[in-house]
Each structure stands twice: as C-alpha cells, then as structure tokens.
Amino acid sequence: MSIRSSIAVLAVLAAVGLLTYGLLSKGSSGVSLGEVAPAPTMPDLGGGGEGSLAAYRGRWVLVNFWASWCVPCRQEAPALERFQHQHGGRDFTVLGIDTRDLSGDGKDFVEKYGLRYPQLRDGNGDTAHDFGTTGVPENFLIDPQGKLRWLLRGPVDGQYLREAVAPYLPDTRS
Amino acid sequence: MLAVALLVAVPLGGASAATPQTSLTEIESEVMCPVCGTLLELAESPQAQREKVFVERLVRAGKSKGEIKDALVAEYGDAVLALPQGSGFSLSAYLVPIVAFVIAVIALACGVAKWRRAGGDADPDDSAPAGPSAEDSERLDADLARYDL
User: Fold this and answer.
1) How far is residue B143 from each of residues B130, B133, B138, B146, measured CA to CA in Å?
2) The pTM is what?
3) Domain spanning B17-83 has what CATH number?
4) Are A94 and A141 members of one domain?
5) How confident is the model at residue A21 (pLDDT cuts 50, 70, 90)?
6) Are A67 and A152 part of one and the same domain?
7) Same-domain check for residues A135 and A124
8) B75–A126: do the CB atoms touch at under 8 Å?
9) Nearest to B75 among A18, A69, A123 (CB)
C-alpha cells in the first residue's frame, strides 16, 4: 500500500473513530423493570455534601425527578410530601432529584412546598439521562436491592401513590 | 470640599460596580437551553425563561461574560456552552477542522504538482493535432488528382 493510500485510510479511520466516540459517549440510556437502577453520586441540593441512590440500599426508594420550572411537579409535590410523611422511615423514603434546574430555584421550591424528604441535584441532567427520562416529573420505585420495580413517566397524585406504590412497601403489605 | 468630593464619588463608585459588562443578547447566543437542546436565544421553554432571568441578574450585577458562563456551567454542566471548551477531548472540535484543512491543502498541492509533471501546463500549441503523415499526404494528393479539381 502506497503512502498516499495509507494516509487516506488513516484519515477515514480517524473520522469514523471520532463519530463512533461521539455516539458512544452519549451512551445508551434507560433502565427497565427488574434492572439495577443507576446510582451515581450527586450533590445535595441543600449544599454541604453529596448523595447517591446507593446509600439507600436496603430501603425502598421512590425516586422523583422534578424541576422548579415544571408545572406538574408543583402539583405533585404536596402529594409526595404527604406520602413521605405517612410511609417514610427505616424501610422507605421518597428521594427527590432536581434536574436541569437552577440550584437557587430548586431550594426555593423545596422551601415553598415544605418538602422534608432528601433532595439531590442533577444540574446537567446526566442522572435523568441514565434513568431514560423524557421529561419531568417522572417517578421510579427502587427496591431494597436497588432494582427498578415500578415507574411512571408523569406526575403522581395521592390516590395513585396509595394504589400503585403503597402495596409494595413493607408497612402496608402484611 | 472633601465632603462634596466624597458625596460625588460614592454614588459613582457604587454605579460603576454594577455597570453591565455584557448583555443577555450577547450571552444567549453562546449558551444552550439544556432542556430544549437549542441556543438559549431560540428557546422559549419555562426552563429557558428561568435561565434568561438568571443571566440577566448576573448581567445587572456587573459580571463579565466569562463569569456568567462559569456560573451557568456550575449550574448546568459543560453542555450548557454552545461552543466546546478548548481543552480535553473538546479541543478536537477545533483541531480536527484545522488538520483536515491542512491535509486537504497538501493533497491539492500534490495533485497540482503531479498534474503539472504530467504535462498539464504544456503550451496549448504543443497539443495541437499534428499534420497528416507523408503517406496520408500522398494518398490525399492522389485522390485530388483523380477528381481533377
């Protein structure tokens, strides 16, 4: 093979390599029922530390992706807080993940709706992407082994939480 | 006199601290709306509106373009920048076109040189068709004589 041919082949390989890297770096996204959910480390929304879904292994966790600019998130927040108040404890917690949002707006949102469950911050949306979200709000129920057991791509309300989520939880199953 | 000078200087000093160094228009053409996936200047989503308010607040506070972009990156990550950063793998976004251009120029130069060596720059007169051979001329003369023109 001549030098010119080698250069041409190398150029084509470099171009293909760059395109492949670009596609792969986006990564596949989404988690299916029964699969282990992603558990990346994220900053705490309130500041002062980091958190991860992995820290909640051994408990049921209702992961709620939200953003302060999202109108349905405002509507479901009180229902989530009530659900946490009723069921939150050693075996279960709601975990809010504020995604693609300004941290100041997120903190104001938490304060306004009096949300007391833990909140993490996903400013760049990477975690939301890993979960395969298509928008906000979206809700994912993770079992004590870290596997996805239920999801809803949309807002929840009190009745839906009682009927769809509560039956999974230890204190309401018996 | 000193008191008057201080009275004048203090408000001026205060005003200059918040003098805008850039504008929303300038910033929003260089950053993205992370939710929409478009330039902020083209976006009208609720998230984009909040991002614009955030930028405007920093502009009014007298922050520079670089400081505002840094603040946006702190909030939304690197993907908020419309132009890739000039470091790490993102540097390839700038280097690859330059390298490709240089390779194209070299290839063109080599091609032109080869074409010239092959006679591409020869005098057009040199490439004119040669006249008939002696044999053809004889045959032509014979034919003309036969027709007695």
Assistant:
1) 21, 15, 9, 5
2) 0.73
3) 1.10.8
4) yes
5) confident
6) yes
7) yes
8) no
9) A123
